[in-house]
Specification:
By secondary structure, the protein is mostly helical. It has 4 helices and 2 strands; from the N terminus they run E-E-H-H-H-H. Helix 1 packs across helix 3.
Length: 117
């Protein structure tokens, strides 16, 4: 359901009939036959949008032991306690350093499926 409810990047607004966003081009890069010295032009690499299962990650954090947390890279018990407190209260910051470590570990070592791109 998280995939269905993800924010739409091409439209303004959240609910109802949405208007298209207007863009302002700030540069031009030639590709194909028109490209001269293509290796000298900047390459803008955009990372794919990743949808993580927040409920799975929250439950995983709540089940973590201090030993497992150390394997992941969370060195102090106080950090784990803070993560568990935020997980219980639904206040996890999924972009924080420690939560990112847990997500990477979860999807590379534990989980049977990759995050949705």
């Amino acid at each position: 359901m998280q995939y269905v409810e993800h924010p739409e990047n091409k439209f303004e607004g959240n609910i109802g009939i949405l208007d298209r966003k207007y863009i302002q081009a700030d540069g031009l890069i030639y590709i194909g036959k028109e490209a001269n010295n293509i290796e000298d032009q900047p390459l803008d690499v955009i990372k794919p949008q990743v949808f993580i299962n927040e409920e799975e990650i929250t439950n995983f954090i709540l089940d973590l032991t201090p030993e497992d947390a150390r394997k992941i890279g969370i060195k102090h018990r106080s950090e784990l306690k803070y993560l568990k407190k935020n997980a219980k209260e639904g206040k996890l910051n999924f972009n924080s350093k420690n939560v990112r470590k847990i997500i990477n570990y979860y999807y590379t070592s534990i989980c049977e499926h990759d995050p949705i791109y």
